[in-house]
């Protein structure tokens, strides 16, 4: 019975999206007035797309990727329409093309060349050798970005209908063959959360791009204890990158943002993207002066579709039961809309990147690429090209390197919050690129950078120290001042909240190295999650959404690396130099000095 109830809820959700399409669709409005031909064509395409026979539009069979040369050189006086000299790109060995969108890669290094998202703006994949492992990856597809409200609503309708169809097939299979066994005698997941549906969701988000894909990428770096394993495995495909925007959409954006003579500012431009991310894709180019640059070019329509995208994703998540009750989803959605609106303004990002470059100019081990203003605008951001491997790939290197990178990641996180009060809050592993020869972490993608009020940072540092020192009274007091608690919570909630704080504070609790891989922080916290979700009386403060995303990302990176880090030393180095604005409270830090 539960399966049929879940199907009923999903059908209700799909119907909400269908109503939105009805109100925005010119074809449906014309059909109501008697013109059924256009509606018939749309219905035919939708039906065939649902069962996988088409790719969403009527067209002849052809290669998904352009056969035109990738790299184009420009003469000094070249303008749009002039003859250019095409040069074939450097040949990269690739597997034979197969029909499936999901293929197997023989090595991480080859997968990096294909993935894109792990490279990011300003990044070039380094040639650092890594051990050969088998990974699941997605072959990039060249598809137009749905750029109008109607096209995006229609895309979500197709995705929702596909999930419903997948749930019907999975429920039918279970009725005939029984529920499949699970590892560790865990309860079976809903039929809506089947492996096939998980991959359908991931590929659908990759096609939609924009805020929809951004939400998927945020979920993809979570721990298995928070997101079901089939969904997490499928969302790894989302983290690898989006579908590729074709030249027919790319050139108009370049013309509109940089002028029709944008070619005159470049020596060459590579139409094959280095990365295809949630909001834009990144292309390698060379300026007239010979500087290699990375140009992040925003997908058309994504900035205007943030609100509708997030609402549609919320419907899909609600009807797949991925969002637990008591999560105060409305507040989370409000914050997400505000953050994504800022991320879509590349002029704001350019200012943030320059600020970070200044803040870290004297900090060894970090580098922020410079912005090229003459090739940047509100929807295009150009920076110098840098190299490195995403930090999750550093897990294949030696222990000394992993410990070094883990320490630098935590050092950066603490400095951002407690020294700069200005933080890059997107923990995507592809935003941190390690260059082994120089032992430098190259930092990219500052769209999610933000500042934090001094009073908030003062109280948050006191709370962190209380968690590290297992000071229950200090944790509760600072949590109330910050807005995590109201003061009316029952004892069971207070106990769970304090214990969760102590668990998160474990790395900072004792001097000496903390081994992240042998201590499962995320699993321990998630065991308390059900209690906190049930008894929580207020959503966390707005600042906490971005901050905790970054903090959890830093911890997950250290767990992924298997790093051992002297975390308390790093915290005390910050605490002992910190200047509080208000009068100091009762001491929340035990008298100690930084270990040598």
Automatic annotation (TrEMBL):
The keyword ATP-binding applies. The keyword Lipid metabolism does not apply. Residues 238-479 form the ABC1 atypical kinase-like domain. GO terms for molecular function: ATP binding; transferase activity. CDD domains: ABC1_ADCK3. It holds the Pfam family ABC1. Keywords: ATP-binding, Nucleotide-binding, Transferase. GO terms for biological process: ubiquinone biosynthetic process. It comes from the Eukaryota. Transmembrane segments: none annotated. InterPro entries: ABC1_dom, ADCK3_dom, Atypical_kinase_ADCK, Kinase-like_dom_sf. Belongs to the protein kinase superfamily. ADCK protein kinase family. This is ABC1 atypical kinase-like domain-containing protein. It comes from Brassica carinata. The lineage of its organism: Eukaryota, Viridiplantae, Streptophyta, Embryophyta, Tracheophyta.
């Amino acid at each position: 019975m539960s399966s049929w109830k879940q199907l009923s809820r999903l059908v209700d959700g799909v119907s909400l999206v269908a109503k939105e399409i009805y109100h925005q669709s010119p074809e449906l409005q014309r059909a109501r007035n008697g013109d059924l031909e256009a509606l018939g064509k749309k219905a035919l395409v939708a039906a065939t797309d649902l069962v996988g026979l088409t790719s969403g539009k009527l067209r002849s069979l052809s290669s998904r990727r352009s056969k035109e040369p990738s790299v184009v050189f420009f003469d000094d006086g070249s303008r749009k329409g002039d003859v250019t000299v095409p040069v074939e790109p450097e040949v990269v060995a690739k597997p034979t093309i197969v029909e499936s969108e999901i293929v197997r890669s023989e090595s991480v290094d080859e997968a990096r060349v294909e993935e894109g998202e792990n490279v990011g703006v300003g990044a070039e994949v380094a040639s650092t050798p890594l051990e050969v492992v088998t990974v699941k990856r997605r072959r990039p597809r060249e598809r137009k970005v749905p750029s109008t409200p109607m096209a995006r609503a229609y895309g979500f309708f197709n995705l929702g209908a596909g999930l419903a169809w997948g749930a019907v097939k999975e429920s039918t299979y279970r009725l005939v063959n029984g529920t499949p066994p699970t590892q560790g005698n865990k309860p079976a997941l809903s039929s809506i959360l089947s492996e096939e549906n998980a991959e359908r969701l991931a590929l659908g988000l990759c096609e939609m791009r924009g805020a929809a894909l951004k939400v998927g990428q945020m979920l993809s770096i979570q721990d298995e204890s928070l997101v079901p394993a089939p969904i997490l495995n499928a969302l790894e495909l989302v983290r690898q990158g989006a579908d590729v925007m074709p030249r027919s959409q790319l050139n108009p954006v370049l013309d509109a943002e940089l002028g029709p003579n944008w070619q005159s500012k470049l020596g060459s431009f590579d139409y094959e993207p280095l990365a295809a991310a949630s909001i834009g894709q990144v292309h390698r180019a060379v300026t007239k002066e010979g500087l290699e640059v990375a140009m992040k070019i925003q997908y058309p329509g994504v900035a205007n579709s943030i609100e509708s995208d997030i609402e549609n994703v919320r419907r899909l998540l609600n009807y797949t039961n991925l969002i637990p009750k008591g999560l105060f989803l409305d507040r989370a959605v409000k914050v997400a809309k505000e953050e994504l609106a800022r991320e879509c303004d590349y002029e704001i990002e350019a200012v943030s990147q320059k600020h970070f470059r200044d803040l870290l100019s004297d900090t060894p081990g970090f580098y922020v690429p410079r912005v090229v203003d003459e090739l940047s605008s509100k929807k295009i951001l150009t920076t110098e090209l840098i190299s490195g491997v995403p930090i999750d790939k550093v897990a294949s290197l030696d222990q000394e390197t992993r410990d070094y990178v883990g320490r630098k990641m935590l050092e950066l996180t603490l400095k951002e919050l407690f020294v700069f009060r200005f933080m890059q809050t997107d923990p995507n592993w592809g935003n941190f690129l390690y260059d082994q020869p120089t032992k430098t972490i190259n930092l990219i993608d500052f769209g999610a950078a933000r500042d934090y009020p001094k009073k908030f940072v003062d109280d948050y540092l006191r709370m962190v120290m209380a968690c590290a020192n297992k000071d229950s009274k200090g944790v509760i007091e600072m949590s109330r001042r910050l807005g995590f608690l109201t003061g009316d919570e029952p004892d069971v909630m207070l106990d769970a909240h304090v214990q969760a704080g102590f668990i998160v504070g474990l790395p900072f609790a004792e001097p000496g190295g903390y081994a992240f891989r042998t201590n499962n922080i995320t699993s321990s916290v998630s065991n308390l999650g059900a209690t906190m979700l049930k008894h929580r009386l207020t959503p966390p403060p707005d600042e906490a959404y971005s901050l905790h995303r970054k903090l959890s990302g830093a911890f997950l990176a250290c767990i992924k690396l298997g790093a051992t880090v002297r975390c308390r030393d790093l915290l005390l180095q910050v605490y002992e130099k910190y200047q509080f604005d208000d009068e100091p409270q009762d001491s929340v830090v035990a008298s100690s000095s930084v270990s040598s």
